[in-house]
Automatic annotation (TrEMBL):
This is Queuine tRNA-ribosyltransferase. The active site is at residues 89, 271. Residues 10-369 form the tRNA-guanine(15) transglycosylase-like domain. It comes from the Bacteria. Belongs to the queuine tRNA-ribosyltransferase family. Signal peptide: none annotated. Residues 252-258 are annotated as: RNA binding. InterPro entries: ArchSynthase1/Queuine_TRR, TGT, TGT-like_sf, tRNA_ribo_trans-like. Catalyzes the base-exchange of a guanine (G) residue with the queuine precursor 7-aminomethyl-7-deazaguanine (PreQ1) at position 34 (anticodon wobble position) in tRNAs with GU(N) anticodons (tRNA-Asp, -Asn, -His and -Tyr). Catalysis occurs through a double-displacement mechanism. The nucleophile active site attacks the C1' of nucleotide 34 to detach the guanine base from the RNA, forming a covalent enzyme-RNA intermediate. The proton acceptor active site deprotonates the incoming PreQ1, allowing a nucleophilic attack on the C1' of the ribose to form the product. Substrate binds at residues 89-93, 143, 194, 221.
Length: 376
């Protein structure tokens, strides 16, 4: 399913084969939380901005419209009209970040919906059943995402429970994939490495879950407030113990510079709401750094957002026009800004893959790690 084509240091150029298509890695997954990118961007738009993978949210889709209804509609692929790979997260992060009242038990988590307050239970089996109904290409194991920093003993107990939950996820997915009415009988399962900011917990957990021979391995519980250098350190500690022949996914990361740094440390997959969320507020990523299009200096600027970009937005619209739309509260402004940022991210990954193919990634990395995060 995953093949490393070429390496440069720890950085890996690979191919990930799924039932819904082959993903060229490293790759960025575009976050369509409720089945669409916020900012009026559809699955059809994603095809035009070099997107390879769409990521949808188990927790939100379970609440609305309901995973049973999505199954009735033929699964997420038919429902959203995206025909490439889809990854669904387990719902765990949202349970722990959105639910104000929650009670963690061995069987799972009891919590109140952030929408209407109704009581909900989600455990490993429930998460797997929801994701099976959604019929995604890749399902994520149900885990607990602890705050950083959390006490060592609490984190240790959480990791041990996450491992027990993972084994239950494996058993339930095997059962679900064998049922006659399951839409995607080839659904994959990724395990999630946890352990907070503690090296020994992280390493021991990766060693333990690596023995389960899962379809892929994620590093979770990072990019939640800890310094970037701490995140990079954790990746470096964990990477030697992640299976060499399995894809690696760094969850919820991040900025273009985060991606450059993490690719250099052996990560293959990324996702983050940042490009779409920041775009809606006028923060646009370019090859010269980060541009705040709301600044007054762009009021009559006829240039494209990024003069080095060939996305549909930069080919057709000026900084002045997009600034005007955002200032006027026009939905088109958010749509164009989001399309540009997502194109930038997907194109960045394509350039990274080309650099790896050519054996020039580290030279590219050294140049752009000091440029892409600069505020223009």
């Amino acid at each position: 399913m995953f093949k490393v084509i070429k390496k440069e240091g720890s950085a890996r150029r690979g191919e990930f084969v799924t039932v819904h298509g082959t993903v060229q890695t490293p790759a960025f997954m575009n976050v369509a939380t409720c089945g669409a990118i916020k900012g009026a961007v559809s699955a059809l738009d994603l095809k035009n901005i070099k997107c390879q993978v769409q990521l949808c949210n188990t927790y939100h889709l379970h609440l609305r419209p309901g995973d049973e209804k999505v199954k009735q509609m033929g699964g997420l692929h038919k429902f959203t009209r995206w025909n490439g790979p889809i990854l669904t997260d387990s719902g765990g992060f949202q349970v722990f970040s959105l639910a104000k009242l929650r009670n963690i038990k061995e069987e799972g988590v009891y919590f109140n919906s952030h929408i209407d307050g109704r009581k909900i239970f989600m455990g490993p089996e429930e998460s797997m059943r929801i994701q099976s109904n959604l019929a995604s290409t890749i399902a994520m194991a149900f885990d607990e995402c602890v705050e950083n920093p959390s006490p060592y003993e609490y984190t240790k107990n959480s990791v041990e429970r996450t491992t027990r939950w993972l084994k239950r996820c494996v058993a339930e997915m095997k059962r679900l994939n064998s049922l006659d009415d399951t839409i995607n009988k080839n659904q994959m399962l990724f395990g999630i490495n946890q352990g907070g900011i503690y090296d020994d917990l992280r390493v021991n957990h990766m060693k333990e879950i690596a023995e389960l021979n899962l379809d892929g391995y994620a590093i979770g519980g990072l990019a939640v407030g800890e310094p970037a250098e701490t995140m990079y350190h954790i990746i470096e500690e964990v990477e030697p113990f992640a299976p060499k022949d399995k894809i690696r996914y760094l969850m919820g990361v991040g900025t273009p510079v985060n991606i450059l740094e993490s690719v250099a440390r052996g990560v293959d997959l990324f996702d983050c709401v940042m490009p779409s969320r920041n775009a809606r507020h006028g923060q646009l990523f370019t090859w010269d750094g980060v541009r705040n299009i709301n600044n007054a200096k762009y009021e009559t600027d006829e240039s494209p957002i990024d003069e080095h970009c060939d996305c549909p937005v930069c080919r057709n619209f000026s900084r002045a026009y997009i600034r005007h739309l955002l200032k006027s509260g026009e939905m088109l402004g958010m749509r164009l800004a989001v399309l540009h940022n997502l194109y930038f991210y997907n194109n960045l990954m394509e350039v990274i893959r080309t650099q790896l193919d050519n054996g020039t990634y580290m030279e590219f990395y050294e140049k752009y790690r000091n440029i892409l995060g600069v505020r223009i």
